[in-house]
Amino acid sequence: MPLFSRRHQGVILLLGAALLLLYAWRAHFWRPFPPPAPAPQTLIFVEVAGAVARPGVYSFTAPPTLPQLWQLTGGPGNPPAPGPNLPSGTKVEVDKDGKYRLGLMSGTQLLTLGLAIDLNRASQEDLEALPGIGPALALRIIAYRTAQGPFQKIEDLEQVSGIGTKKLAQLKPYIEIHPQPGRQKGGSQVRP
Description:
- It is a single chain.
- By secondary structure, this protein is an alpha/beta fold.
- It has six helices and six strands; from the N terminus they run H-E-E-H-E-E-H-E-H-H-H-E.
- Strands 2-1-3-4 form a four-stranded mixed β-sheet, with no helix packed on it. A two-stranded parallel sheet has the order 5-6.
- Strand 3 (90-94) and strand 4 (100-104) form a beta hairpin.
- It starts with 5 loop residues before the first helix and ends in a 16-residue tail after the last strand.
């Protein structure tokens, strides 16, 4: 059996160490684990229209207040007193006297922004923005809602003539039911 000289043993040790370093480098052993990916951030969309300097749809990372919107859009007069935060899909209409009305964005606008349409507050026009819903079916949905009361769950939509399991599956990503009764189409006068 051949014996290795000290010189040969040194070369073998150096080659072994080099192979271990190469393996460690390829496997990224000494690098820390990457930080976890940030959670996807849900944006809040609010539309401001009427007598403001900068009308349009604004996105926020947290629900805004009316004074924030007033400052951002250049609303007339003094900003309104702070109130509740505005949920996504809200439309604020401002007149030249600084009065405002809170309502909902149109169905087309909501869908464009990736927001769902509330079945219990949608107008005929809003419902027609949904895929596969024409004027006749939109009217049947409203007639059912008027006769039977608000939808309690999305699956109740199958009770409307012309909407079956397949159509409901097609609509589900675009519709929702809001539990709060305060948000109604057209809004109400909030500031004198």
